[in-house]
Every structure is written in structure tokens, then in C-alpha cells.
């Protein structure tokens, strides 16, 4: 079967309960759009489906569901609102629904990345389990302020997979107010022993005892996204980017003041109370920042809260 024939057969099948339409007829309409009008196949398909929906006088979600009707999509490739897609993904995380109308909300992951998903109570779907992988047919994409998510609906087909879907990019993004900087931030000394790098407390490594430490910069910050707090670690490079204070400058500050804690105090004054978007892999309870952006503040505060509540 040609590509168009496959699409035609699927469309005819989807409408079989509503219209008397044959695969031949659908194929003809697709063919005309694709060949004569040079419309891309996806768009031709959408257009033909829409015209049959009009003809049948039904809404899209009344169509026969089932996977195979849509394009199999990687999460990271989703870049349009209100597209009907099929995904194969692992349930990475389930969150506590913040509203009665939400049955489940959380994060899906596949080898392209992660995306929020939501299932509404009215859809009466079987529950997804954290850590399990599924083929999800007929989910709808959604966009909110540039962030995409997928919505399960009552036509969504859910098939648990035997294989486990590999979740690619481990990155997470946290957006909120930097509310605290923890001790052990700023100018620190690390153990110089091979492969140790522990942060010294009063010149001592917990493993190697009293050593001549090596200076480093680090920030352990607490970011409040309006919903929960996240602990974020900025390494030397990210700390320099975040504060504009480089290691040599920090050492000079400490020497001038005869006190290394002055660096932490200086950073605290520059950062606490401002809004940031931090992205990076997670390690246990920490987010390891590898991208940071200072956001408009406090104009964003209300927006952040609204967004946090909507999750
Ligand atoms: Zn050590």
C-alpha cells in the first residue's frame, strides 16, 4: 500500500460509524491535495479529516480512537498546539493533582526528553503507573507560554509496553525565586586528594583529615517555584556566570577581608530574592545547574504563582 492509501484506509475506518465513505474516495481527495496542490501529507490528512468532520457534524474527539491514526511523535518534537499524536513514553514522575478535575498529572519521558502530561477525571481512563512505559494513542498537544504538554482524553488508548522506554535528557527546569543560599557556598576549599574533591570543613576533609585545600567556587541555592522548593547546585563556572564574580576576584575579596565568608555574603546579597530559571540534570534531590537565566522580577511573581497552581 502506498503512504496515501494507508492514510486513506485509516481515515475511512475512523469515520465508518459516522459516514458512508470508502478508502478509495478518501485517497482521491488526499491525492488531489498532495499531487495537484503540493500540500504536505500531514496537512492534507488534517484537511480531509476536517471536511469529513464537518460533513458528519461531529467533533474530533467523537471519532474512533486508537493508535495508528496519528503520527508517532517524539516528545521533544512536539512544537504545535492542539495536534493529535501518538507517543511511546515512560511515566517518569506523577505529581499530586491540584484540582478535582485532574485525575493524573506528571512527567512523561522518551529518548528525546520529558514532557508534562495531564489526564482529566471526566476521561475515565485507567491510571498510569510511575516507572511504567506505555503506548499512548490519540493524545492532544497543548501549549502554555511556550511550554508544551500532552493531554490524555477519553479517546486515548493506553497500552502498557513490555519494553522499558529509555528516557533521554535527564534535564529539569526550575523557575522561581532564589530564597536562600546554604552554608558551604561562595569561596570554598576542596580536598586535593585524587578523586576526593570533598569540601573541607575548617581545613579538614572528612575522609583525609587536615589537608592543604584547593579553592573553588560553588553555590548551593534554594529556589522556590511557588509550589515547592528545589535545591540547586551551581559549580564554579555557573557561579561565575551567575554572580559575575570570578575565582581570582573571590580570593582577593577574601584576602582583603581576611575572611572567606565575605564571598558568600556578597553573593547572597546579589542573588536572594530574585527570580531565575535554572536548567540541568538532577542528582538525587539536587538540580545541577548548567543553564541559568535571571527573570524579570517581581512582575513575574503573580504569573509564577498562577502557573504553579495550574500544574
Ligand atoms: Zn579528601
TrEMBL record:
The lineage of its organism: Archaea, Methanobacteriati, Methanobacteriota, Stenosarchaea group, Halobacteria. GO terms for molecular function: DNA binding. InterPro entries: NA-bd_OB-fold (IPR012340), SOSS-B (IPR051231). Keywords: DNA-binding. GO terms for biological process: double-strand break repair via homologous recombination; response to ionizing radiation. It comes from Haloferax massiliensis. This is Replication factor A. It comes from the Archaea.
Amino acid at each position: 500500500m502506498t503512504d496515501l492509501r494507508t492514510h486513506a484506509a485509516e481515515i475511512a475506518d475512523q469515520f465508518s460509524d459516522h459516514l458512508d465513505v470508502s478508502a478509495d474516495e478518501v485517497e482521491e481527495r488526499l491525492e488531489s491535495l498532495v499531487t495537484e496542490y503540493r500540500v504536505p501529507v500531514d496537512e492534507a490528512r488534517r484537511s480531509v479529516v476536517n471536511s469529513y468532520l464537518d460533513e458528519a457534524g461531529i467533533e474530533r474527539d467523537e471519532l474512533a480512537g486508537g493508535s495508528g491514526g496519528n503520527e508517532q511523535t517524539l516528545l521533544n518534537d512536539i512544537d504545535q498546539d492542539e495536534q493529535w499524536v501518538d507517543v511511546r513514553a515512560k511515566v517518569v514522575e506523577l505529581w499530586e493533582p491540584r484540582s478535582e478535575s485532574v485525575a493524573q498529572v506528571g512527567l512523561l519521558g522518551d529518548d528525546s526528553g520529558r514532557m508534562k502530561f495531564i489526564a482529566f477525571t471526566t476521561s475515565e481512563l485507567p491510571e498510569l503507573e510511575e516507572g511504567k512505559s506505555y503506548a499512548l494513542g490519540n493524545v492532544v498537544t497543548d501549549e502554555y507560554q511556550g511550554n508544551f504538554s500532552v493531554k490524555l482524553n477519553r479517546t486515548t488508548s493506553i497500552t502498557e509496553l513490555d519494553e522499558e522506554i529509555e528516557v533521554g535528557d535527564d534535564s529539569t527546569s526550575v523557575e522561581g525565586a532564589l530564597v536562600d543560599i546554604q552554608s558551604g557556598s561562595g569561596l570554598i576549599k576542596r580536598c586535593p586528594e585524587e578523586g576526593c574533591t570533598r569540601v573541607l570543613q575548617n581545613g579538614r576533609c572528612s575522609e583525609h583529615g587536615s589537608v592543604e585545600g584547593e579553592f573553588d567556587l560553588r553555590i548551593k541555592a534554594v529556589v522556590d517555584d511557588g509550589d515547592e522548593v528545589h535545591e540547586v547546585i551551581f559549580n564554579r563556572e555557573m557561579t561565575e556566570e551567575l554572580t559575575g564574580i570570578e575565582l581570582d576576584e573571590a580570593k582577593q575579596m577574601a584576602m582583603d577581608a581576611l575572611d572567606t565568608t565575605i564571598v558568600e555574603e556578597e553573593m547572597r546579597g546579589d542573588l536572594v530574592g530574585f527570580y531565575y530559571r535554572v536548567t540541568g540534570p538532577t542528582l538525587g534531590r539536587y538540580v545541577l545547574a548548567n543553564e541559568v537565566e535571571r527573570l524579570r522580577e517581581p512582575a513575574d511573581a503573580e504569573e509564577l504563582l498562577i502557573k504553579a497552581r495550574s500544574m
